[in-house]
Task: inverse folding
């Protein structure tokens, strides 16, 4: 069974498991985000408090941990097989610090690609912080589970880790991996309701003529005959495959959480199994229920949002996708110095590797008489 944790539409490439939001009906390119982000930036000024007083109250300048010492890696795209090499190439070219803020804007995508990308960032950086300026769904949530801390903007949200599976006997289209699970729970509840209804009706209408045991036997027989045709349509093999596919997100999440241990106990199972909708909104307050270290975006992070409104508040896909390294001012980090340095190193290497001239080959060299 081919499984995808995806954004409700098929993604390019061979992805067995994808996760992502199914809703894409939101308008893109709206300018309302710009004015909202500037207004909120003026209102949201997190300040460190000590002994009941903030830095400003003590006459000190507020401190922002992201004012220095961090790279800012923006990933705004559906997470596909191309995300990992794009992120790896960007980091290899432009890495400047030992810590990184991963700015995630995505509807979701491949769980395998998300896992490889998260593992890579955990390997090359000492500290990984996730910043959610806007939607960060499913496979994006899996990436967030690899972070040491999570920061959320006033517009930020996460989504459940809901596995999306290919519809059986269909060329296209996907369904939630929890559909079968929900159907079984509903059938169980409905079966018991039928049994209870028939049993109570038999007892109440017969008075004392029918015993409780006899009424229960009759009610069980009627309920079984009514529900049997529905249960016979369940394929145990497909049910088992769906269960295995759902475990993909759980196993990846457990491995990514081992380094920083930011997920609270039971949070991973809650993200995979407990939410009723694939595009359920998990806001800042609920994120605090799932992760140990969660806070609202600092001024330094909101400065990047204001500088890159269209790039960090509107999810992109296809040819519009964006993976880039940003500076503290929100502008792309230039590659000119790095390229010049690399060219200089190559020239020095070529010069050192060139063979020395042989005797008799150069001008003024001795010749045979």
Result:
């Amino acid at each position: 069974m081919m499984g995808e944790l995806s954004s409700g539409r098929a993604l390019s490439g061979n992805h067995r498991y994808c996760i992502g939001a199914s809703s894409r009906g939101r308008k893109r390119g709206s300018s309302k985000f710009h004015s909202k982000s500037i207004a909120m930036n003026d209102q949201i000024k997190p300040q460190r408090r000590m002994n009941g007083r903030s830095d400003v109250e003590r006459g000190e300048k507020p401190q922002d941990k992201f004012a220095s010492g961090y790279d800012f890696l923006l990933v705004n795209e559906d997470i596909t097989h191309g995300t990992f090499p794009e992120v790896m190439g960007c980091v290899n070219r432009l890495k400047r610090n030992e810590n990184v803020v991963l700015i995630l804007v995505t509807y979701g995508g491949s769980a395998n690609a998300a896992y490889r990308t998260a593992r890579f960032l955990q390997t090359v950086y000492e500290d990984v912080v996730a910043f959610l300026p806007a939607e960060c769904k499913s496979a994006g949530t899996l990436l967030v589970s690899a972070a040491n801390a999570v920061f959320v903007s006033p517009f930020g949200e996460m989504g459940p880790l809901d596995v999306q599976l290919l519809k059986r006997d269909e060329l296209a289209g996907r369904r939630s991996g929890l559909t079968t699970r929900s159907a079984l729970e509903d059938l169980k509840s409905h079966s018991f309701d039928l049994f209870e209804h028939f049993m109570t009706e038999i007892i109440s209408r017969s008075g004392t003529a029918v015993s409780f045991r006899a009424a229960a036997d009759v009610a069980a027989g009627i309920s079984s005959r009514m529900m049997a045709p529905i249960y016979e349509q369940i394929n145990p093999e497909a049910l088992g495959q769906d269960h295995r596919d759902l475990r993909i997100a759980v196993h990846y999440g457990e491995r990514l959480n081992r380094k920083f241990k930011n997920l609270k106990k039971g949070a991973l199972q809650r993200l995979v199994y407990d939410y009723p909708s694939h595009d359920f909104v998990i806001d800042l307050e609920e994120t605090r229920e799932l992760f140990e270290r969660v806070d609202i975006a600092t001024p330094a992070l909101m400065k990047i949002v204001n500088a890159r409104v269209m790039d960090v508040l509107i999810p992109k896909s296809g040819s519009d996708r964006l993976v880039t390294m940003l500076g503290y001012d929100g502008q792309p980090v230039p590659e000119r110095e790095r390229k010049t340095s690399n060219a200089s190193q190559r020239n020095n290497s070529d010069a050192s590797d060139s063979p020395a001239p042989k005797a008799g080959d150069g001008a003024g060299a001795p010749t045979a008489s």
